[in-house]
Amino acid sequence: MNTPSEKTIVVGRIGSSYGVKGWAKIQSFTVPVDNILDYQPWLVWHKSKWETMEIREARAHGNGIIAKIPNCKNCEEVKLYANAEISVYRSQLPKLPDDEYYCNDFIGLKVLNQQGLELGIIEKVIQTGANDVLHVKGEKEMLIPYLPHVILKVNLIDKTLLVDWDNDF
């Protein structure tokens, strides 16, 4: 998939249609979930190109969000967007303090343990509710919990993450 020239972050996904008038269920990756509506416009990969989408109608629904998809008049048109990721430009998100990070910041970081052994590269961040978990792929795949006593140092400039973690896990 092509990406826009400015760095983007995935903040959600368009789910199945909701009703018959062009609405869809939105899976938000933001905390709280309705923050996704604050980051407009959305960038959606659709029909092999990036589409800018401004959401004008949306509301909370259960534990999620439902939104009227622009230019969709019925559920059949919404189905064409099912499972499309919702991205925003990094510049649309609030600036974080120096010791806080967006999950996307970890993707691609090289993970090293205290003995200097390279454990692999972070492929994705899994949000479990209790704590985030880093999916690291190297000689073997491993899941490393994002906990203060495990994550020792994040260096986004060198693209490394120092952990208190044994390769035997």
Your description of this structure?
The protein is mainly beta and about 170 residues long. It folds into two domains: about 10-90, RimM (Elongation Factor Tu (Ef-tu), domain 3, Beta Barrel), CATH 2.40.30; about 105-165, SH3 type barrels, CATH 2.30.30.240. Helix content is about 5%, strand content about 45%. The protein has one helix and 13 strands. The chain has one helix spanning about 75-80; strands at about 10-20, 25-30, 40-45, 50-55, 60, 65-70, 85-90, 110-115, 120-125, 130-135, 140-145, 150-155, 160-165. The strands form two sheets. The chain has a seven-stranded antiparallel β-sheet. The protein starts with 7 loop residues before the first strand and ends in a 6-residue tail after the last strand. The mean pLDDT is about 90.
